[in-house]
Amino acid sequence: MGAVIEVSELTKCYGSKRAVDHLSFTVRPGQVTGFLGPNGAGKSTTLRMILGLDAPTTGAATVSGVPFHRHPRGLRHVGALLEAGQVHGGRSAAAHLSALARSNGIPRRRVDEVLQEVGLTEVADRRIGGFSLGMKQRLGIATALLGDPPVLMFDEPINGMDPEGVRWVRRLFRRLAAEGRTVFLSSHLMSEMENTADQLVVIGRGRLIAAESVRDFAARGTRSSVMVGTPRAAELAAVLTAAGASVEPEGSAGAEKLAVTGIPADRIGALAFENGIRLNELTTRTASLEVAFMELTADSTEYQAGQPR
Ligand SMILES: Nc1ncnc2c1ncn2[C@@H]1O[C@H](COP(=O)(O)OP(=O)(O)OP(=O)(O)O)[C@@H](O)[C@H]1O
Q: Which GO molecular function, any one, fits this protein according to its record (predicted)?
């Protein structure tokens, strides 16, 4: 099995504040896993504990079964982008990467390879201080890739990137996962994860809200509904209501539609058939991830963790 990030009952207190509260989850290789939560949910603190930059108050985090600080030459095992702004502004991109390569026993040729990979070859000798936020993000990604590690963690990697940068970074993450690596990305924006992640770990106020596939998470949105088109809307509405559904008329007269919740599409089709009512449309509308996310994090304390402890 490839490298797995395992977080177990992880807790971090700052004074009386619990930034991370008995958090347990697993991040597996070969997939992109999104780490999602509103601002202040505890994502950065969790990533810092996984990387051994902060000590947990209680609990543990391991990478491939071992705490990160016990991995010799860490950059070859885990590549991470935390705060992109925090690099020495006076150095060039090439000098910054070369220094890291030397101290981690990584061959010099990797510097040129990663600069090429992130599209910074042409500005390799410019001072990092003059880089835009998007360029700094690219440099941070280059740093994470330098040791060709099996595990990659990125904190808000899309911040400051233009639409082309966002498309590029999505392709890159998917490719890294397809190569069998463990890819873990944090974001406070669901929309960023919708097209990037396969799995989600969702937290609110330091606690686990959900750990499941993007698809299962979206399906939890309480607003999933079935759109039904029929020339006999009133009649069908009565049949569906009698069967326990809630029905909201939509559309204009002559092109009426019903938004149906509470019973699935196949049951609606069967009821229409049994009652001789013709349908011109029967479409399940899954609540958008954004809706599911907002609903689930609206009051984090109301929800139980989605994973057994
Ligand atoms: N060094 C610290 N001292 C005191 N409180 C802290 C410290 N670091 C984080 N916190 C608090 O812990 C909570 C979690 O912060 P954290 O930065 O981990 O959240 P986050 O999910 O990464 O948020 P964001 O999306 O805003 O980066 C916040 O309430 C924050 O104010």
A: ATP binding
The CATH code of the domain that includes 35 is 3.40.50.300
Mutate to test the pocket of ligand 1, among 45, 187, 209, 293 (most ligand atoms within 8 A of CB): 45
| Residues 48, 42 contacting (CB under 8 angstroms) | no
The pTM is what?
0.77
Per residue in 223-260, pLDDT tens? 678 999 999 999 999 999 999 999 988 877 666 899 99
Pocket test for ligand 1, best of 43, 205, 300 (most atoms within 8 A of CB): 43
Domain that holds residue 251: 225-285
Helix (H, G, I), strand (E, B) or coil at 55: coil
- Structural domain includes residue 16: yes
260 falls within a domain: yes
Are 68 and 140 in a shared domain?
yes
Classify residue 307: in a domain, yes or no.
Answer: no
User: Do residues 220 and 206 lie in contact, with contact meaning Cβ atoms separated by under 8 Å?
Assistant: no
Tokens 């991470």 correspond to: 80
The DSSP element (H or E) to which 15 belongs, if any, is none
- CB of 134 closer than 6 A to ligand 1? no
Nearest-atom index, ligand 1, CA of 47: 18
Do 126 and 267 lie in one domain? The reply is no
Q: Is 39 in the pocket of ligand 1 (CB under 6 A)?
A: yes
Pick the range with the lowest mean pLDDT from 45-59, 133-147, 199-213, 287-301. 287-301
Radius of gyration of the chain measured on its C-alpha atoms: 24
Residue of the CA atom closest to atom 26 of ligand 1: 39
ipTM of predicted assembly, 2 dp: 0.94
C-alpha distances in Å from residue 119, one per residue of 116, 136, 170, 277: 5, 12, 14, 59
Strand blocks (E) in the chain: 5-14, 17-27, 31-36, 58-63, 78-81, 151-155, 182-187, 199-204, 207-213, 225-229, 246-250, 257-261, 281-285
Residue 146 and residue 76 share a domain: yes
